[in-house]
Amino acid sequence: MKRSSKPSKKVVGVGYKNNNEEVRIDWEMRPGGMLVQKRGLGSSGDSMIKIKVSHGSSHHEINVPSQSTFGDLKRVLAHETGLKPKEQRLLFRGKEKDDEECLHIVGVTDMSKVILVEDPASKERKVEEMKRNQYILQAYEAVAKVRVDVDKLSDKVIALAKTVEIGSKVEDKEFVVLTELLMVQLLKLDAIQADGEAKVQRRIEVRRVQSFVDALDNLKARNANPFANGSSAMSVTTKWEKFDSEVGSLTAPNPRQKTTSKITKDWELFD
């Protein structure tokens, strides 16, 4: 009796434990030497499975096709966790899995447990970013605190300006004290370490304080010499009336009054 030469399928069983339960995966060798997972009756390649993903204190249940890759699972988890796929590391049975590895090939079945951890380099970058944001926030708060103090001092500068404008005399020490208080605020701003937008806000406040200091210097000068300002200086002019003898009158005529002189000569006749 002649035996058939047609190769038969070889079935290999591989066992492992999942949640303390024995799980067996059967593999079959297809013609050509390809080793694939043996499918049960009525099964399909795109059947959905539920995977339990543990991420720190959080737990997620993700539904994916059974023949998905770990890269596919990462993309789904990105929507659930907010972590980008490149920031994720997936561990199954204590080993990290590559994105190209298929879930069903390594034995991930329905209700299998996968552990998600954040990539250490990514986590370190986020920590540095949080520190930087906190650093910028502290700089903002410091500049805002100085701005409040400068606002109070600006009210005093405006009050002094009004006093000088109406011609009232102000003691020099008021200008000196107010200038010193503004210089203290400049020192505070100089001590603030700031980057980015906080640095811009600090620069704006420094210019603002300097403008008040310059205004006080001008007010102090006007207070010492009210007539020093060219806009308020008095212009004095003198007009002289000339006679035939080229001798000037000591009294200036009213410029609005027109004077006319009529000279007549009367002669007396003698015999």
UniProtKB/TrEMBL annotation:
User: Where does the source fall among the domains of life?
Assistant: Eukaryota
What is this protein's name? BAG family molecular chaperone regulator 4
Question: Which residue positions does the secretion signal occupy?
Answer: none
Q: Kindly list the organism's lineage.
A: Eukaryota, Viridiplantae, Streptophyta, Embryophyta, Tracheophyta
Sorted alphabetically, the keyword list is: Chaperone
- Write down a Pfam family by its short name: BAG
Coiled-coil stretches: none
- Which residue range or ranges hold the BAG domain? 139-220
